Each structure stands twice: as C-alpha cells, then as structure tokens.
Amino acid sequence: MSYETIQVAPVTPHLGAEISGVDLSGVLSNRQVSELHTALAEHQVIFFRDQRLDYDSAKALGRHFGELHIHPNTPGPEGHPEILPIHADGNSKRIAGERWHSDVSCDPEPPLGSILYLHTVPPVGGDTLFSSQSAAYEALSPRMKTFLEGLTAFHDGGPSYRATNAKLGIPETGKVYPHAVHPLVRTHPMSGRRLLFVNRGFTIRINELPEDEGRAILHFLFEHSTKPDFQVRFRWRPHSVAFWDNRAVQHLAVWDYFPNTRSGFRVTIKGDRPV
Ligand code: SIN
C-alpha cells in the first residue's frame, strides 16, 4: 500500500502501525482521511505521537470517520456526551478496559472504532494491548473454522456495566443495558478479512449450543483470540493517540501504575451490524 499524505510504519507483522506527518487537531483533507481509513483497515490499530487534542478537536476528528457514539454507561462531561473520560489516579477503585474486550460489542451495531488520546501518562507502565482478530481467526484449524461457521453469540452489557458500577459504589437502578446477537465470525467491510467476534467483556453464550458446550468453546476462543502471537503492545507517551478498528481487534488496558495518574479521553465512532 502506498501513501501520499501520511507515513505509515508497521509495528508488528499482524497489526499496529505508527503514523506520522499529520496533525490530528487540524483540518484534514479528504485524501488524508481516506489514507487514515485505509491504514486503519490494513493495520487494525494506528498510533500517533505529539498530538494536542481537546474535546472539540477530538470530536471533529472522530466525525471524519462516522457519527459519534454515546457510551451507554458512562456519561460524558457537561456539553460533551460523546466524550468518554479515561482517567485513573491514586483514588481509583477500577480502570476502564482491564479485561480483554471489544468496545460495546453488546450494541446491536457495535462501534466501528475508538480514538483514545492521553495527555498524562505514568512515568512507566499503563500500556494498552491490542489483539488482531483476523490473525486469531486465520490461525484456527480448518475443522474449527468450519465448526464456527454460522454460529451466533449473545452479547450483554448488563453484567459488565453493573459490576463496574458496583465497584464505583453507583447504586443499581434496574437499567436495561444494550444486548444483541452477533455472528461468532464476521467479515470486515473494507478489508474483506474474516474476524473472530467474541470477547470476555460482553459475550455470554453461544445460541446454537447447549450451555456447557458453548461455555467450553467460548473459553477456548477467549484464550485463543488473545494469544501473544496476535498482539501489539502500545507504550504511551504524553499526547499520544491510539485509533483502533473495534471490528478487528480486542484490547486491554494494563493497570500496573497505581497510584500514578493516567488521563485523557476517548471518542467512539458508530458502526454497522456485524455480518
Ligand atoms: C478502553 O477504551 O478500553 C481503555 C483503553 C486504555 O485506557 O488504554
């Protein structure tokens, strides 16, 4: 793939690329947006250094790639419902994204992608891990691929969001969270790659199997889909950005930096029904 308006340096053979030559807070040309979109589809997660974003410029950036998503459990700051604050410090009882997950896969139309900007990072630690779900799918045996074909899974936001709220001391309100049925294997609309689409955060059961068989298969898929072979690990510096294709990767935030501060915010782009 050749790029004219950005430089793209792959980080691993499967996923991840560092992008340079673009100021994400400025006005982007159609060509830049199209090349960023191509780099995202090709590398699944793209990283940027030395950026300066505020809520408005982050939202403008996200809107180049689609409509913005509003998180079903975490309200944004006043006047910015589309912003998801990501913050941890010495008073935190939890952090966002400590388990392998794909963002809000419980939505009937799960997000296309997320753009995370961190302005403050700990002196060391606080990395984010990403795992390629096309590499995970491709590594399965032909028999397992055939077995998974046509199976669907139930994804539910309730257990995960209620557990988060309990840790934070937020009272239970009986709210119904998003839930949806998705194929276990989906096809990426741009790259045409086949992708595993299950995650520990939200996938509850396989609809076409008895509960115990489904649990065993899900356990295998959760382990398989997050093997180190399919991962890239992003080491943050202040004012870095990670933009991941939420259809193609799972991710996990490492909380090894307590009581230090790690802070920034995310915008999330709406996606389509997985097929
Ligand atoms: C998340 O969006 O899941 C959080 C990722 C991170 O803080 O690295």
In short:
The protein is α+β, with helices and mostly antiparallel strands. Helix content is 22%, strand content 27%. The longest helix has 14 residues, at 30-43.
How are the SSEs ordered, and which strands pair?
Blueprint lengths: L6 E4 L6 E4 L9 H14 L1 E4 L6 H9 L19 E6 L24 E8 L7 E5 H6 L3 H7 L3 E5 L1 H11 L10 E5 L1 E3 L6 E3 L6 E4 L4 H14 L6 E4 L5 E6 L3 E5 L8 E8 L6
Bound molecules: succinic acid.
Succinic acid (SIN) binds next to β5 and β14.
Key attributes of the depicted protein:
single chain; 275 residues; alpha+beta; Double-stranded beta-helix; seven-stranded mixed sheet; three-stranded antiparallel sheet; 6 helices; 27% strand; binds succinic acid
